[in-house]
Design a protein that fits this description.
Blueprint lengths: L3 H4 L4 E7 L12 E7 L4 E6 L4 E8 L4 E8 L12 E7 L4 E6 L4 E6 L5 E5 L12 E7 L4 E6 L4 E6 L5 E6 L12 E7 L4 E6 L4 E8 L2 H6 L5 E9 L11 E6 L16
Antiparallel strand pairs: 1-18, 2-3, 3-4, 4-5, 6-7, 7-8, 8-9, 10-11, 11-12, 12-13, 14-15, 15-16, 16-17
Length: 266
């Protein structure tokens, strides 16, 4: 499944796909995100250019990986995708959450059945207006789902219970604390109660420390204080270059140095 050149690199434990893009099972066209389901040993990869998510079974014994299934197809109807971007697994509710970049929404799929459940903010819907959704993360402590609403330069918070809209942060394009310019990736630091955001066109990663009372945390409401700090300066954070359509797993002891732009930098 891997590329010969990558197979010769001792740092690469596994490679899926080739340098040439493709649309058959196990090949990609602009893979931009992935998540691992450690309960089932499944690797889910966002195959953005093919408008789908590919699912692979990974065998810990021999580092093998085999194609299992794919979710979605190109289109703008429920269950169809246009350039999906971010992925998150919600084990508490047995679902896969994916941002549907060009359809301007989020889709929910059954994790156990790998079947479509519902759309949120999908193109043409009236429940929530988002545009060019990118990163997504689950804040388990506060029972929230955080979405990077890239075009609107903000973060959108949904209830993880019923996926209803709670509130948003940002909305003004800029480089000052609390402002965004096309946010993309999101990570949750549960131990420190922080939301960490890749802000694409300010070339920074921002950290939001949200202080909330116990009642706010339980109800999933915003607190009155939100302190933003610039944690580090960086180039665009990215997962794949335009020149390659592969997904690689590396030993944690080795780093990666890649200066290519990603789809997030378009």
């Amino acid at each position: 499944m891997g590329d010969d050149a990558l197979d010769r690199d001792a740092r690469i434990k596994l490679s899926i796909g080739t340098k040439q893009q493709g649309n058959t099972d196990g090949l990609f066209r602009t893979p931009v995100g992935l998540v691992f389901d450690h309960h089932r040993g499944l690797l889910l990869v966002v195959d953005s250019g093919n408008h789908q998510v590919q699912v692979f079974s990974c065998d810990d014994d021999d580092d093998g990986c085999s194609f299992v299934s794919k979710l979605g197809e190109k289109g703008n109807q429920p269950g169809q995708l246009k350039n999906p971007f971010g992925l998150a697994i919600d084990h508490d509710h047995d679902r896969i959450l994916m941002t549907d970049y060009a359809n301007h929404g989020v889709q929910s799929w059954s994790l156990s059945e790998q079947s479509f459940l519902q759309c949120i903010g999908h193109e043409g819907s009236a429940d929530i207006k988002v545009r060019n959704t990118r990163g997504i993360a689950i804040d388990k402590h506060h029972h929230r789902i955080v979405i990077a609403d890239s075009y609107n330069h903000r973060l959108v918070f949904l209830s993880s219970i019923d996926l209803s809209f709670l509130f948003s942060v940002g909305g003004k394009r800029g480089s000052q604390p609390g402002e965004f310019y096309s946010p993309s990736g999101i990570a949750i630091d549960h131990d420190r109660h922080r939301i960490i955001v890749c802000d694409n066109f300010t070339h920074r990663i921002w950290s939001c420390i949200r202080r909330a009372s116990r009642s706010h945390r339980l109800l999933g409401r915003p607190s009155s204080a939100c302190d933003w700090s610039q944690s580090m300066a960086c180039r665009h954070v990215h997962m794949a270059s335009r020149s390659s359509s592969t997904c690689s797993i590396m030993d944690q002891a080795h780093g990666v140095d890649d200066d290519d732009d990603s789809i997030a930098g378009r």
